[in-house]
Specification:
heterodimer; A: mainly alpha; two-stranded antiparallel sheet; 7% strand; B: alpha+beta; Enolase-like, domain 1; five-stranded antiparallel beta sheet; 14 helices
Chain lengths: 284, 337
Amino acid sequence: MDYFLTWGRSPWGQQILTHVSWNLLWASLFAGVAFLLAHASYMVLSAHRKRLPAETDAMEAMRPNLPPRIARHSLAARMFHWVMAASMLTLLSTAFLPIAGVKFAWVTWHWMAGLVLAASIAFHVIHATFWLDFWSIWVGPKDLPELRAEILRELGHDVAGPKPGKYPLGNRLYHLAIVVSALSVIATGLTMMVRIRTPLFTRNPYLLGDASWGFVYVTHGMAGVALVGLVIAHIYFAVRPDKWWITKAMILGWITRRQYLEHHDPHRWVVSETSHGGTEARRL
Amino acid sequence: MAVIRDVMPAFELFQPANLADALNLLDRYGNDAWIFAGGLDTFDWLKDRIKRPRYVVDLGGLAELKGVRESGGGVEIGAMTTLTDTVTHPVIRERYSILMEAAESAASPQIRNQGTIGGNVSQDTRCWYYRSGWSCYRAGGNICYADTPEAVNREHAILGADRCVAVNPSDTAPALIALGASMVIRSASGERVVDAEDYFIGPGIDITRMNVLNPGEILTAIRLPGDWAGSRFYFEKVRDRQVWDFALVSVASAMTLSGTTIQNMRIVVNGVAARPLRLAAVEELVRGKPRNEATAALAGELAIQGAQPLRLNAYKIPLMRNLVKRAIRGVEEWTTS
């Protein structure tokens, strides 16, 4: 276990957990890069099934009243995403560059970025609960047919099964991983702030016992190193040419009618067809 | 309470005869190697069995790192020069008397005979929680035991704390910074020279180290430029007893005057933070001002801006303020007025 955790000794002679081992940072970096290489190789070499242009042409012909631009992300959702991205990158840089040998005064930047992340996620939870289709991003047993269909398509089969709704299955699984990691890192990070000097709290190093503090630090470290791999994967997909249309939608807020028809199941993500050119995405 | 165990853990001892061999050894063993200079800090760690290096590289045989040499209008002091040899050197006594005073205030004559100037500036903090081997931040843990509500922290930091509140214990460090010294650092890959001011780092930059030395690097020499040689110096070290003790707070300054006006000044305090603090704002404030009580009082107040005392060390704030005042106005002129 010493490869994963670091231990210390309390003034009472007890063995206490102190941190996650920073070996895991390199493991997470390696895992992220290995996934990137493996996926990129697979995409070059595999026979994954793409919808033929003629099929999309036919679908477009059948839906002439669909507007040319389909709204995908509201301005509030996009702002949340980019604020969260900036704070996440700041958090990872300030946490791990010093471990990698780039020394600078990182603590203040780290907790300030952490507060921005916490605030942006609080905003997102409220926004998604009351203004967005809350359940559209989550995964559950209902998604098994889509998973089966996606796997078969990746293996080169022509499957008539369900296409993704607003969010592809991979996107939803990634969101789940980020939710677990980010909430862990925020909950533990806010707790750890009680132990350092900030203008916000009166320091209280005795808020928890040694063992509990050890658990908090280890959880924070575990979630942090997990986020390194997850962020690598996210940036990789964001810059892949075949996924650029999704990234562009996160900047501009919309996708084209053709992209909507090509990549989504219009029955699971319903867009109203209007005569005046506006769009309305129904919450399904 | 620390338990003195006396018997050191086993390690492999290397006694290289030249710097190249020493650097090769450090390069080979990296983090597992421990540099041994005078041994005064080292033996504490080893006998308490808190540090357990696998390899110890003794620099005692490196003649090239010993001695004081005049060069380029200044002097170069080999890092393995003992404090005694430093304070007795005629050039140091004549032109850099502040360094003489600072080095002479370190410990006892026996310790100064053994201790080196390189070791004095590179020694670890004296925080007794840390040196007791507990898993504090500085030791790689996640707490500062000296910054808890019941901590015994009379000797600890009032400025620059960042999780850890340990202070730098070196007596010569503030004098070297006041003199504008630079530190020559060698490794197997080459040489780099850093200002003395930048040689020391606080916990915000690296909580486990007190200086910029990386594994594999040796401080080989300290260069004193001629810029401040022979200027008006002030050094004062306040400690609990007048011999063989570490500073509670110390101050070192170098000043040039035009009549009674302060032309230029460098002033450094130690014992108040994890690194010796050069008071740049104070230097700026006093430049061009008359050297008198009013200027000194103003500077003293400015010096303590931002100080945050711990449970038992609030006394350091007036102490630091008064030492800064005394460094600026001097002592002799005022004791009779």
